């Protein structure tokens, strides 16, 4: 996640250097790679994680358009009860 944060902040060169140093294992990133190329490489590092992490990552990366109301998780009833200004996410009523 530090790599993703640095990419979002525009520190692509820093992440490229991390990739080339072997910190993430072997790398096919070349010096001067675009931000998109580095971001895609970093996202690819997560492919071996369990399904729970895959869902979290898809939400973080904004890949939930086809999920409909399931793109947002339900807010626990205890949280809703404790704050009258909150309303349940759509589709979870």
What is the element layout, followed by pairings?
Blueprint (H helix, E strand, L loop, with lengths): L1 H7 L3 H10 L13 H10 L6 H10 L16 H6 L11
Helix pairs in contact: 1-2
Characterization of this structure:
- This protein has 93 residues and is an all-alpha fold.
- The two termini are 33 Å apart.
- It has one domain (2-68).
- The protein is elongated.
- It has five helices and no strands.
What structural class do the secondary elements suggest? Answer: mainly alpha
- Run of helices and strands: HHHHH
Strand count: 0
Strand content: under 5%
Rg over alpha carbons: 18 Å
Low-confidence stretches: none
Q: What does the largest sheet look like?
A: none
Tell me the domain tally. 1
User: Average pLDDT across residues?
Assistant: 80
| Termini gap | 33 Å
H/I helix tally: 5
Helix share bin: 40-55%
Q: Quick one: overall form? A: elongated
């Amino acid at each position: 996640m530090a790599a993703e944060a640095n990419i979002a902040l525009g520190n692509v060169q820093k992440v490229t250097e991390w990739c080339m140093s072997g910190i993430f294992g072997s790398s096919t990133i070349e010096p001067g790679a675009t931000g998109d190329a580095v971001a895609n490489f970093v996202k690819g590092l997560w492919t071996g994680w369990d399904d729970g992490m895959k869902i979290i990552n898809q939400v973080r990366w904004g890949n939930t358009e086809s999920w409909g109301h399931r793109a947002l998780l339900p807010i626990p009833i205890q949280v809703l009860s404790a704050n009258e200004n909150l309303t349940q996410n759509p589709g979870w009523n």
